[in-house]
Write a structure and sequence with these properties.
mainly alpha; 13 helices
Length: about 270
């Protein structure tokens, strides 16, 4: 009898049933609906007043935080308010202004190059087509989709590091290449959802589902997440990991939308 019990205990556990594609799509869409309730104020976290400012800010955001960009762009746009002004800048002077964002020499070259292209090829206006935007120096699909979705109202999926991390944790895809991730996610959601889905996912990644220490115990979509348990599951400990308005701290924008519930970020040097 004891041997039989031991044998039974040692029997291999059955592997969990694989999720069908249809079930994954339904779960993904439910996650989107839940995130819409958690972040009804989701928005681009770069300060901008027009398409040119958004384009420049997005290029600057590479390898740094949106907060650092937002703290840097007021002085940049005061000095170079138009593509014509930026194209004619003295490189060393622009480098000094954008130095806080890192990689300032390469970024200066890209900004002056794209500004010259806007001046010479597009009459000083930012084009509203993906094919035109990705031809500009320093502008890839991610930057182009940010500009199209938020300055022109053209639906687009923005695959940054947060977006890619979360969709893989949620098992929507196991693709690593941003273009392939974009294509997979585009097939899950209607086009009308693409831009806001991008904001919600990025918001969640920055506030709760962090890269190193996801706050699983404070996550409102934990029941829908197949990766639950990768992070802190104790509710009290998890709450201490929350960032920005979720943790009672300032956000990344110095000039956030009127419906943003958090505190505006401090200006450069006022942190």
């Amino acid at each position: 009898m004891k041997a039989a019990t031991t044998a039974k205990a040692a029997a291999p556990r059955k592997a969990p049933k694989a999720e069908s594609h249809l079930a994954m799509v339904r779960r993904a869409r439910r996650i989107n609906r839940e995130l819409a309730e958690v972040y009804p104020y989701a928005h681009p976290e770069l300060d901008f007043r027009n398409p040119f400012e958004l384009l420049v800010a997005t290029v600057l955001s590479a390898q740094t935080t949106d907060l650092r960009v937002n703290q840097t762009t007021p002085a940049l746009f005061a000095a170079y308010p138009t593509p014509e002004d930026m194209a004619a800048a003295v490189p060393e002077e622009m480098e000094e202004i954008i130095r806080p964002t890192g990689f300032f020499r390469a970024k200066t070259k890209s900004l002056m190059g794209l500004s010259a292209a806007l001046r010479d090829e597009f009459g000083g206006e930012v084009p509203g087509r993906l094919d035109d935007l990705v031809k500009l120096p320093g502008v890839g699909r991610k930057t182009a989709n940010v500009v199209l979705g938020n300055a022109f109202g053209v639906p687009g999926i923005t695959v940054d590091t947060h977006f890619g991390r979360l969709v893989r944790r949620w098992k929507w895809t196991d693709e690593e290449d941003p273009v392939k991730v974009e294509a997979v996610v585009a097939g899950i959601f209607p086009k009308s959802e693409w831009t806001m889905l991008s904001h919600r996912v990025v918001f969640h990644g920055r506030r709760i589902c962090h890269a190193r220490k996801p706050a699983c115990g404070a996550c409102p979509i934990a029941p829908l997440c197949p990766s639950y348990g990768e992070g802190e599951t104790d509710p009290e400990k998890a709450r201490k990991l929350l960032k920005y308005e979720m943790g009672g701290y300032p956000g990344q924008r110095l000039s956030p939308p009127a419906d943003y519930p958090g505190k505006p970020a401090p200006a450069l040097g006022a942190e």
